[in-house]
Design brief:
Blueprint (H helix, E strand, L loop, with lengths): L7 E6 L5 H7 L2 E4 L20 E6 L2 H12 L12 E5 L2 H4 L3 H18 L2 E5 L4 H16 L5 H5 L7 H10 L4 H21 L5 E5 L12 E4 L2 E4 H15 L3 E8 L5 E8 L4 H14 L10 H4 L6
Helix pairs in contact: 2-10, 4-10, 5-8, 5-9
Length: 303
């Protein structure tokens, strides 16, 4: 999709797997409200309470078109005028690289100006607990139908780390999953209250641009973290609670790698996220949804 070889692609977002590739590749990715989009054919469709299919496209208009097919209903354009944008001052928005923080703050202000809205500082306690709860639940759900006998028949060519990880999940206590679902209920109630105050919550999709494949680590103010560990802090809440979320490109780093902003809205407000994304695209002249990586701009060197 990033190479523009196809007009759109479909991902399955369980802990950010639509939004992260969108953020890394300068695309727009929509994580729908849980249950709104088609999941036929996904092996976890019968058991998951977190994973949802969503479109990965060049811009919000294409996400709206492909999303309409996935939803089985037209995602009708609306109006984001007067958008109330909530910002949270915590590690998700603060423990990021300076380029990401400055770029996302500028994008939020641009969106506010374009919509004639306002920026409201809000509090969202226990976000770290929500992240852990989502990880526990998705690991427990992924073990549906797995038995010790099946684990012992794993292909011997599977790496020892992968085999160990799969078997470790069998040791997760039921009490931990029960507690995780209590956290889910708590966070849903808190979000319901917050969405009476704001229309969307905004923070960086990823805390740092894409790291090298051979060493997927990121340097943040808090220290060095794996990209997976750092990224999930800002994504898991939407999966745990079922709210929709969208990632959109808002700039490039000094190394010309994409930087992305994430917006989250109340349940069923998927169309509002697309409206907000289109407003931001208009405000910046579609600069970032049409930007190309240096490789694409390079002149051919030979036949």
């Amino acid at each position: 999709m990033a190479a523009r070889l196809v007009a759109g692609a479909v991902g399955a977002d369980g802990l950010g797997s639509v939004r992260f590739p969108a953020a890394y590749c300068g695309l727009t990715g929509l994580k729908p409200t849980f249950g709104r989009s088609a999941m036929e054919g996904h092996h976890m469709a019968p058991v998951t309470t977190l994973i949802v299919s969503g479109p990965l496209c060049a811009d919000a208009a294409d996400c709206r078109l492909l999303g309409s097919a996935l939803y089985g209903e037209e995602l009708v354009p609306g109006d984001a005028t007067g958008l109330r944008i909530g910002v949270v001052r915590d590690p998700v928005s603060e423990d990021v690289t300076s380029e990401v923080r400055e770029t996302c703050e500028a994008a939020i202000e641009t969106l506010r100006e374009e919509t004639g809205g306002e920026v409201v500082e809000i509090e969202l306690a226990d976000l770290a607990a929500a992240t852990l709860a989502a990880i526990l639940i998705i690991n427990a759900e992924s073990m549906s139908g797995v038995t010790p006998e099946r684990l012992n028949r794993l292909n011997p060519e599977l790496s020892p780390i992968a085999r160990g990880s799969l078997k470790y999940r069998m040791l997760l206590p039921t009490a931990a999953t029960v507690q995780a679902n209590r956290v889910r209920t708590l966070m849903r109630r808190r979000l319901a209250d917050l969405f009476d105050q704001v229309d969307v919550i905004a923070w960086p999709t990823i805390p740092a641009p894409a790291p090298p494949l051979e060493e997927p680590m990121v340097e943040l103010p808090s220290g060095t973290l794996s990209a997976d560990q750092a990224n999930v802090r800002g994504a898991a809440l939407a999966n745990l609670t079922g709210i929709p979320s969208i990632s959109m490109p808002v700039g490039l780093s000094s190394e010309r790698l994409p930087i992305a902003l994430q917006l989250q809205a109340a349940w069923g407000k998927d169309e509002l996220l697309l409206d907000a994304a289109e407003a931001l695209e208009r405000a910046n002249g579609r600069r970032w949804v049409e930007s190309r990586p240096p490789l694409a701009e390079a002149e051919p060197t030979g036949a």
